[in-house]
Amino acid sequence: MDGTKVIAVVGATGAQGGGLVRAILDDPAGGFVARAITRNVDSPKARELADLGAEVVAADIDDEASLERAFAGAHGAFCVTFFWDHFSPEKEIQEARNMALAAKAVGLRHVVWSTLEDTRRWVPITDDRMPTLMDSYKVPHFDGKGAADQIFRDLGIPTTFLLTSFYWDNLIHFGMGPKVGADGRLAFTMPMGNARLPGIAAADIGRCAYGIFKNGDELVGKTIGVAGEHLTGEEMAAALSVALGREVRYNAIEPADYRGLGFPGADDLGNMFQFKRDFESEFCGARDPAVARTLNPRLMTFSSWLEANAGSIQVE
Ligand SMILES: NC(=O)c1ccc[n+]([C@@H]2O[C@H](COP(=O)([O-])OP(=O)(O)OC[C@H]3O[C@@H](n4cnc5c(N)ncnc54)[C@H](OP(=O)(O)O)[C@@H]3O)[C@@H](O)[C@H]2O)c1
After folding, report:
1. Three-state secondary structure along 113-168?
2. How sure is the predictor about 114, in pLDDT bands with cuts at 50, 70 and 90?
């Protein structure tokens, strides 16, 4: 044994996990090696990680035995779920349980669990400020993750709870970029009023996770929130105008109107934005960019992210 610590990374071919794998590979003297977990070791993305020097292994977070095999012998694991693949908080909770049970079975020393708030702590399902969705959730893609925190605690897994933020990449991949309105002008639509939205380059979440593993035991049991910047819709529209070279105005609609936009998950996202707007100081307070920058000195700002990515934002 040379003392190098293996980090098993769920979602390694995706946004968060991919950021972590690359952060480990970028720091060959850092004392860690990356074990990339994928359902298909022969996919182009998996092969690319192998070519870059990662160990690539197969596992599915719906199959606990496969996770035990993939976690075996590792020091730590990065655990993340994929809500938008299935839209089920119950499935996310079961998948978190599978990862926690596998971590316990093989005795991992450090797990970073990519989580979000259970918003029902602030807005109980009896509270009619926002509609209850799927019978028992307010923000389903938050609440399931937050509820799953307790599974890691109950099983005694040495866990750091990583509170993530809105990906700026959503402006490219999630249909949230500026759109040409009926008036022919470009508008960036978000139901946040004048509240600030903590945002981050998705890959920086993984880079911050690497900083957490490097800090070791010090951050076990802690909740760490990360963001690149907290920006209002007006500030985001102004930065987009500069980056795209075209005026972008901020279109601050009401959460109820956002919920009614009709695309899959619009109600969940409408509630999410309302939660972030109405609990702005707590939500922003839990995600300090200075903490994220300590963990990841390369942390991007919105402007630096736009500089690198504006060409990929479709505005037609
Ligand atoms: N969009 C946002 O602003 C935002 C902000 C904060 C948090 N989040 C949360 O981030 C999570 C998604 O993370 P991400 O964006 O990093 O994901 P992603 O980029 O969509 O990557 C998902 C990767 O995970 C793998 N995967 C999917 N299902 C799997 C399974 N059953 N078992 C094992 N691997 C599986 C896939 O790889 P293979 O095909 O190679 O197996 C895929 O490449 C969601 O739960 C979302 O709620 C999103």
Report:
1. EEECCCHHHCCCCCCCCCCCECCCECCHHHHHHHHHHHHHHHCCCCEEEEECCEEC
2. very high
Atom of ligand 1 nearest to the CA of 142: 47
Residue 115 CB less than 6 A away from ligand 1: no
For residue 83 the two structure tokens come to 């809500």
- Which residue's C-alpha comes closest to atom 19 of ligand 1? 14
With CA atoms as reference, report the closest residue to 210 among 54, 14, 23: 23
Q: 119-123: which pairs have CB atoms within 8 A and are 24 or more residues apart?
A: 119/143, 119/146, 119/271, 119/272, 119/275, 121/146, 122/275, 122/279, 122/282, 123/275
Q: What is the pLDDT of residues 41-54, one digit of tens each?
A: 999 999 999 999 99
Q: Tell the residue nearest (CA) to atom 17 of ligand 1.
A: 14
Does residue 113 line the site of ligand 1, with CB under 6 A?
A: no
0.90 surpassed by pTM: yes
Spatial distance between the Cα atoms of 81 and 144, rounded to a whole number of angstroms: 10
